[in-house]
Amino acid sequence: MNFDSYMLPGVPAALFWTLVSVAVLLQGISKSGFAGGLGILSVPLMLLVMPADRVVAALLPILILCDFNAIYFHRSNCDWPQLRRIYLPAIIGIVLGAAVWWYIGQAGVHQYEVPLKRFVGCIAVLFAGYIFAKETSMQWAAQHKAGPRAAWAAGISAGFTSTLAHAAGPIVSLYMFSQGLGKTRFVGTVAWTFTAINLTKLPFYLAVGMIDWRVLTFDAVLLPLIPLGSFLGLWMHDRVPERPFNWLVLALTLVAGVQLVFNVPVVQLALQALAGGG
Asked: Largest CB tally within 10 Å, which of 114, 149, 229, 247?
């Protein structure tokens, strides 16, 4: 099948498949529990070579499969009351996010390509700040248990940002950490929360026409990378120091975020430079 409509103009097929494959591997690694925030890089990375609506649509089925893999290992490690407190308001955010995608689809995706990239860029920059101050953030969250109002604010924000850009990781993590669940229960509850949120997003994506058989065919090509990413994450867990790895993630996320905010066509400029140098 021809996937030219998934590629930005001028992007070589080899570069396209390389970056997309790396993005999917990052999701698998992140969902395995190693460097949990690593998945935030997937969207900015894919936006270098794909239209924004294609990126978000293609990632959702992949995320759901990664979530299923995660909850298989944490099927008994969920605090269901905490999940309900953040998931129910998240539905409101999901509906709002789906309404935005419906409006963009009606008005024409290309008109909103730059604002969407800038939104993702801002989320990436904020996430880089979260990584930079993660330990301080977690200490603060541990000392300030989030109540019902915070659960509603976190849920709606998580649902909205997740629907627009699959970028609700820090919101859910900070809320759950503030509940003092313990490491194992925390990881399991976060995994189950994202499974619930992503499954709820699916019918809305279908309703606004973002996911069709072409998206599923595209994802089928990438399917083997999901277990490979999970295996890499488990392998890295005992072999790669997480702290320096997180600093690398911070740097890459910040660079990716800044170039999206300023709408810098990095790939196209790099290819022009190579062509000029040749």
From this structure: 229
